[in-house]
Amino acid sequence: DTQATPGLAALDNIRLTSRDGGIVPLTTIAKVEQRFAPLSINHLDQFPVTTISFNVPDNYSLGDAVDAILSAEQALEFPSDIRTQFQGSSLAFQSALGSTVWLVVAAVVAMYIVLGVLYESFIHPITILSTLPTAGVGALLALWLAGSELDVIAIIGIILLIGIVKKNAIMMIDFALAAEREQGMPPREAIYQACLLRFRPILMTTLAALLGALPLMLSTGVGAELRRPLGIGMVGGLMLSQVLTLFTTPVIYLLFDRLSLYMKSRFPRREEEA
């Protein structure tokens, strides 16, 4: 009678029938203990899981929180049959950072192929793509000075810079190549004239993009902290690239032009066969 005995002691009165028909008390085959347990057990991929939620405090980024959790996990030294996994925004953050490098590489390779087909050259696309490091350095420097983290939104801003900044070199290289092929100008004079004549369009397009990014950088209100890294990265990259590309692009253009002449004199037969 389990109703006459309160608590766990009532389980001692439970009898089970064995295979041979005998009566066996439950305590002979089971050990009953009283301890704390969850009210419900969640499952992920058919495995029982325990979900631990966290909030990111002020003045800290999601990346800082993820690094702290990973450090705590290593310090606890979980057994081999226990594994941890991020979910939600933390999982999306790690996935985005893991694929960012390959995304940038794919974008650069695609631009190189398109520019190579456009200019029918293997060298001049490299001259155009040489403007990208200055934009990346400017964006990272601006984020560092502003105290912002390199999050997913800031990475999107850097990817946007890839398309905006390279137009400076395209304007100069396109004019210089046309002057060389159509007017017979030497490379030094051609790139010099390109810098003089294309300075105003370069400055106008850069200022247009810069003024468009300023509201993102200076925005306030709801959601401003999400948009601000995008504007900071774009403004920093545009400012530094505008200052440096007007000097670095002609130098790299002349350097690769001399390299091309050297290769032609070094391997004349190979070029004739091609």
Automatic annotation (TrEMBL):
InterPro entries (alphabetical): AcrB_DN_DC_subdom (IPR027463), Acrflvin-R (IPR001036)
Cellular-component GO terms for this entry: plasma membrane
An annotated Gene Ontology molecular function: xenobiotic transmembrane transporter activity
Gene3D superfamilies in alphabetical order: Multidrug efflux transporter AcrB pore domain, Multidrug efflux transporter AcrB TolC docking domain, DN and DC subdomains, Multidrug efflux transporter AcrB transmembrane domain
Membrane-crossing segments per the record: 100-119, 152-178, 199-218, 230-256
Entry keywords, A to Z: Membrane, Transmembrane, Transmembrane helix
UniProt xrefs under PANTHER family: MULTIDRUG RESISTANCE PROTEIN MDTB (PTHR32063:SF21), PTHR32063
Record-given protein name: Multidrug transporter subunit MdtC
